Amino acid sequence: MTDSLLAGWSAIAPDATFSAPSDCAHRAARFERKIKRRNILEYAAGTVVFAVFAAFGIGAIAVGEHAIAAAAWAIVAGVAAVMWQLARRGGSLDRLPEEPCLEHLRRQYRQQHAALRSVPLWYIGPFLPGIVLFYLAVGAGVAREIGWIAALQGLASPAAATFGIFAAVALANWLAARRLKLTLEQLERLG
Q: Count of alpha carbons within 13 Å of 143, Cβ hemisphere only?
């Protein structure tokens, strides 16, 4: 029976080969290192943004700019929410001893795909209240001096740049999720 299956398989795909089990383990380890490096970079950036906006909030309170301080602290809260979500959604999954390597790799890809696909919700979303509050606070302060029309005109370029960056981050993560989905589909076809 085994010989007839091997002969049939060989006739259908004479150039096909099996990959070594170590290839899957190497691929999984490489993907886990990539996740770890990305997350370390994200945590480092989050720490810097957290510290800068916390100091900015303290400075704003010191000079009596309470609305700007509230915006800075809302951004700090957004950073904390993003870091928590990154740990929850974007971390590497533990290997299960009973799980075949290929299934572990599929689970990793599924988790990372879901995290990348939902970046607008958990990565960009927590920053929006603080950013909007910041632009409103700055706009109101400037409007007291030169009027709302001039204040809004002055805020248009910085706001467009900020929201353009958010759009670029969302697009980059959507594209990465799409590539990961294609890879996952290839793995799913393996069985």
A: 11
Give the whole-angstrom CA distance, residue 91 versus residue 86.
7
- Kindly indicate the confidence band of residue 187, based on its pLDDT and cuts at 50, 70 and 90: confident
Q: What is the DSSP string of 24-75?
A: HHHHHHHHHHHHHHHHHHHHHHHHHHHHHHHHHHHHHHHTT-HHHHHHHHHH
- What's at 99, amino acid-wise? E
Q: How many CB atoms lie within 10 A of CB 134?
A: 22
Give the Å distances, CA to CA, from 14 to 3, 7, 10, 24, 118. 15, 9, 5, 23, 42
CA 107 to chain centre: 17
- Cβ 115 vs Cβ 90: under 8 Å: yes
In whole angstroms, what is the distance from residue 127 CA to residue 67 CA? 16
pLDDT in tens, 120-162: 999 999 999 999 999 999 999 999 999 999 999 999 999 999 9
Q: Which residue has the tokens 């960056």?
A: 165
